[in-house]
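Q: I'm writing up a methods section and want to include an example of the input and output format. Could you take the sequence below and give the corresponding predicted structure tokens, formatted cleanly so I can copy it straight into the document?
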Amino acid sequence: MIPAIPARTARGMVIAALGLFGMACTGQIPASDKGGNGTANPPGVSNPGSGSGANPGGSGSGNTGNGTGNGNGSGMGTPSPMPGPDGVIDSAGPYPLRRLTVLEYKNTVRDLLGVTLADADSRGFAADQVLQGGFGSGAAIVSSVDSRQFLEISDKVATAATVDLTKLMPQGCAAPAAGAEVDCMGKFVDQLGLRAFRRPLSNDEKNAFVGLFSKLRGAEVGAPFNEAVHDVVLAMLQAPEFLYRWELNGDPIKDGDLIKFGPYEIASRLSYFLWASMPDEELFTAAKSNGLDRPDQIAAQAERMLKSDKAKDGLRDFHMQWLGLYGVDTLDKDPAFTTYSPEVARAMIDETSSFISAIMAGTGKFEDLYTSSTSYLTPALAKHYGVTGVTGTTPQKVDLNPAQRSGLLTQGAFLASHSKENDSFPIGRGLAVLRQVLCQEIPEPNIMLPPAPEQKQGTTTRKLYEDFTAAPACQACHLRINGVGFAFENYDATGGYREKEENQTVDASGAIELPSGTLKYKNAIELAKGISTSPEARDCLARNWMRALLRREELKIEGGSLKAASQAFASSSFDMKALVVGLTKTRAFTHRNPVAGAGK
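A: Here is the clean output for your methods example:
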């Protein structure tokens, strides 16, 4: 955690307030309202890039719809979206303007300035908003409370970053002579600005930051050198161009009816998609040298990035959001579960994170996601699972009993997240599998439902919920929901394994009708095995990765991109790395539609 500091002077507050102007930005990148070069700024965002009033678009070459790339960026590369022979349209949808999520903000500050924020440092931020499609975006900054929180955290970060100017400033500029200060600040603004805004600064932007420094150092304010540097950093950290995903460098380039993202935009799309953080030096270099113009160049960077330790954050974030696992360590559970605790819940998150990282660093196979019994346990979690011989303070690789544990769906994080305080709640677990894992549409009930009755002694959870949902009006949905949820009845509300409940042998059998056929199972192990080869589950994973990229549900006009990514997935024998890399080669990744509401 970065150290607390005393309240800033009026000088600091004024500088911070200037940075907050225009931070309440929401919506999507719109089409032009005046003709001109094709697009206009969203409300409240100062003009990035060339100062032309342009939205993100950028420069680059041609059509990347299915990874073939056949245009030249001249406006002739992408035809109007027309269905192919199979009826699939290969175009792109609108690009929503969004703020960095809390995780992205923390990671970006770490990689930009070397400042590590603890959870307590960002606790006051408004919670990320979950968008259509199930993946989060940073909440809009719309109140004085939001602004004050960013003011205070930016001040803390800037203070921590300027403790040792020899690590922050360009060489020879930590304590320059008076006559060299402005030149040093110009170099510093160029270097930090490129990385903070994730694109080169315009001349106007550079002059504004250098001018701010000069005013602070002038006789009227008289700020010491280190405080003036602090306030320049503070202003950058509060700029919309830092807080929002907006990396335009120059005028947008039309590619037929679409706008092609420029190289700096592509660099950030890669880094926030795969790392949940800002681009590294190799991505910045590639952007500067036109090394992100072609699909093969983008894919090569994606492959490199997936091998980096930084990918662990991006992979963890995707799976936590996809399966609804965030917050499991804050859930209340019945004290009767004596081996369960918040420490165990946090170990469950680490278990799932380590499990995912190991698969993606290894085979990457989709099947392993649901069938591997290898896991990563702390001693406390091992005790909860009934496993002996685990020592140490970090998760240890353990081969679990394959008759009890098989992949993500039998891990504690998933099981505890979708249960209640004291019962396994098969409805919640069934809905999570149907909606998130199989992408089956289950409508919300159109009537007000009473709470489930209390479980009586001698009554199993399965019997309780069978009776509770027995009405014909309920069975239309609950025949499917319960059938899947009951498969997990060998696991209690905390994910602990059980073979008996209320002195009765657990019945975890069931069946589900899918378009590909009927899947029958005796328990969660057999259900997971069936899911691991299910076309529906494979397709659903591809859809969810695309939704994580877009931060919304895919549109019909983006069907070509989904199809291309799915084909890359299938041709690799369902290697999840190939799926993710394949998405970065699609038109949905490299282009946006300038028409608001397009594709709906």
